[in-house]
Amino acid sequence: MFRLALCGKNYELLEKIESHIQSFVETYKNETKCISIEQYKQLASLRDDMVDGIHFDILMVEIDAHPHEDFRLLSEIRKTATDTIVILFSKFLDYDFTRLGYQVGAFRYLSTHNLFSDLSEAICTALEISAKKQKRYYTFSHYSEIIRIPLDDVLYVKRVNRITMIKAKNGNFHLQLPLKEIYKEINDSRFLFIDRSCFVNIDHVTCFADAEVKLDNQESLPISHSNFTAIRSVLLYKTPNEIQQPVR
Fold first, then answer.
1. Rounded distance, CA 91 to CA 110, Å?
2. Residue 210 to residue 232: CA distance in whole angstroms
3. pLDDT given at position 94
4. Residue 241: its pLDDT value, please?
5. What φ, ψ does residue 179 adopt, rounded to 5°?
6. Closest CA to 70 of 60, 57, 61
7. Beta-bridge partner residues of 217
8. How far apart are CA 246 and CA 248, in angstroms?
9. What is the pTM of this model?
10. What domains are there in the chain, each with its CATH number?
11. What are the HTH LytTR-type domain coordinates in residue numbering (predicted)?
């Protein structure tokens, strides 16, 4: 699922934009055809939500006749949402939007005068970029929050009793989801099962032996006998300086 925030003061225009996007997404060629759109009348409210941790893949923001405050708020958003795609639209064309937009990493500038003729292409490209970015994260819901963990930061995922724990650089996350379901959703060749209850990110493996792998956070995890040969063959493709095999 993609999440899009639509921000502007013209309610009727926002409704038309949302309807246009939803109609387009229904015929979108990408396999992910679901998009959640939330409307905001005030950019400050959107800023507050995103600073509080609410994530959006795409922002569509209307810029009014006094753009500097809008861009100040967008700059604050950008500090906490470095990967979010920003699309700006406005009926005022006499401002240096390119210079100000560059500072907030704007992806597209759309004129409201021909908005609907250009919107589909902008959304299509934004969705394609977002799909690639989503593959670099594991995303899940926790109550009312959307949590995104960079796959690079995941050390391992382990089943503990009836809870699945994701061990990441910034802490532990506990989910009531089957281990195999999370593995399938991650869908990244860097992750390998070392036994039935645990799979690891081999980018964080620094040492391996018959009984265990050692990670770069100094943790050691047991390897099942049945998985050792397959794990060893994969790890040996990594640079020898990255993976050390203990001297016997």
1. 9
2. 9
3. 60
4. 44
5. -60, -45
6. 61
7. none
8. 6
9. 0.60
10. 2-134 (3.40.50.2300), 141-235 (2.40.50.1020)
11. 138-237
Cα dist. 197→105, 159, 160, 194, 227 in Å? 42, 5, 8, 8, 12
Q: What is the pLDDT of residue 185?
A: 87
Short-list 29, 46, 126, 54, CA closest to 85: 126
What is the longest distance spanned by two Cα atoms in the chain? Answer: 73
Residues in the chain, overall count: 248
Residue 248, pLDDT score? 36
Between the two ends of the chain, the Cα-to-Cα distance in Å is 49
Task: Please give the single-letter amino acid code of residue 206.
Answer: T
**CB-based contacts of 178-186 (< 8 A; 24+ apart in sequence):** 182/138, 182/157, 183/157, 185/138, 186/138, 186/151, 186/154, 186/157
Q: Please list the ranges in the chain whose pLDDT falls under 50.
A: 31, 239-248
| H-only helix segments in 33-153 | 43-51, 67-80, 97-103, 115-134
- 70-89, pLDDT tens digit by residue? 999 999 999 988 889 999 99
pLDDT for 210 equals 67
